[in-house]
Amino acid sequence: MSLAAARVAAQKCRESLAADVDSIEARSAKRAAARIAEAQLITFKTCAEAYVAAHEADWSNDKHRA
Predict the structure, then answer these.
(1) Given CB 3.0 to 4.6 Å as the disulfide criterion, which of 16, 36, 61, 63 pairs with 21?
(2) Alpha-carbon gap, residue 15 to 9, rounded angstroms
(3) Using an 8 Å Cβ cutoff, are 23 and 13 in contact?
C-alpha cells in the first residue's frame, strides 16, 4: 500500500469514527449484502441441476433419476 493510499484509508477511518459508525458492523453488513446479491443470481433451475449432478451417482434406481 502506498503512502497516499494509506492516508486516504486513515482519513476514511477517522471520518467513520467521527460519524460514530461501528466498523465491525459495517463490514459484516457489507459482507451480508454481497452474499444476498450473490444468492439472488442463482436460479432454482441452476441449483436443482447442480444438486442432481452431484447426487445422481448415489441413486441406484432409474426411477430416482427421472
Answers:
(1) 16
(2) 10
(3) yes
Cβ neighbours for 56, distance < 8 A, ≥ 6 positions apart: 65
CA–CA separation, 14 and 11 (whole Å): 5
Q: Which pLDDT does position 63 carry in this prediction? A: 79
Residue 26's pLDDT is 86
Side chain identity at residue 63, one-letter code: K
Length of the chain: 66
pTM: 0.46
The span from the CA of 61 to the CA of 36, in Å, is 36
Contact 65, 59 (CB under 8 A): yes
The per-residue pLDDT of the chain, averaged, comes to 88
